[in-house]
């Protein structure tokens, strides 16, 4: 199952995520991820208050419990004012659910 780990919140988005990246990569579960440009450079349709999302990872794991286990390795999950949202990536047939 693929999951999107959404990095969000106030504070410094450029935290050291080496442990998460090493563990997920070595297990073959890290699909990709990036930090996003500053929200002031984005376009919102319709124009609303910006969401404080500043990065993401895509992982491919056996189940949601493993996604949570990996997400706990991200410093965003422990840093004050930051969080990690874990969202399943739906497949057209939703066979994973």
Rounded to the nearest angstrom, the distance between the terminal CA atoms is 10 Å
**Proportion of β residues?**
25-35%
Order of helices and strands: EHEEHE
Report the helical percentage: 10-25%
| Number of helices in the DSSP assignment | 2
Structural class of the secondary elements? alpha+beta
Kindly provide the radius of gyration, computed on alpha-carbon positions and rounded to a whole number of angstroms. Answer: 14 Å
> What general form does the structure show?
globular
Q: Looking across the biggest beta sheet, what order are the strands in? A: 2-3-1-4
Low-confidence stretches: none
Tell me the layout of helices and strands.
Layout: E1 2-9, H1 18-26, E2 30-35, E3 53-60, H2 64-71, E4 82-88
Antiparallel strand pairs: 1-3, 1-4, 2-3
Protein name: YCII-related domain-containing protein
InterPro entries: Dimeric_a/b-barrel
Organism: Kribbella pratensis
Description:
This protein has 97 residues and is α+β, with helices and mostly antiparallel strands. Helix content is 18%, strand content 30%. The protein contains 2 helices and 4 strands. The chain has helices at residues 18-26, 64-71, and strands at 2-9, 30-35, 53-60, 82-88. The protein has a 4-stranded antiparallel sheet, covered by helices on one side. The longest helix is centred in the first third of the chain and has 9 residues, at 18-26. It is globular and about 40 Å long. The mean pLDDT is 90. InterPro entries: Dimeric_a/b-barrel. This is YCII-related domain-containing protein.
């Amino acid at each position: 199952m693929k999951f999107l780990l959404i990095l969000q919140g106030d504070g410094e988005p450029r935290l050291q995520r080496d442990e998460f990246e090493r563990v997920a990569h070595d297990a073959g579960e890290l699909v990709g991820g990036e930090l996003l440009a500053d929200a002031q450079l984005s376009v919102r349709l319709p124009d609303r208050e910006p969401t404080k999302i500043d990065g993401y990872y895509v992982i491919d794991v056996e189940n949601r419990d493993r996604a949570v286990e990996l997400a706990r390795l991200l410093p965003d999950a422990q840093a004050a004012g930051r969080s990690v949202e874990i969202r399943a990536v739906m497949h057209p047939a939703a066979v994973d659910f």
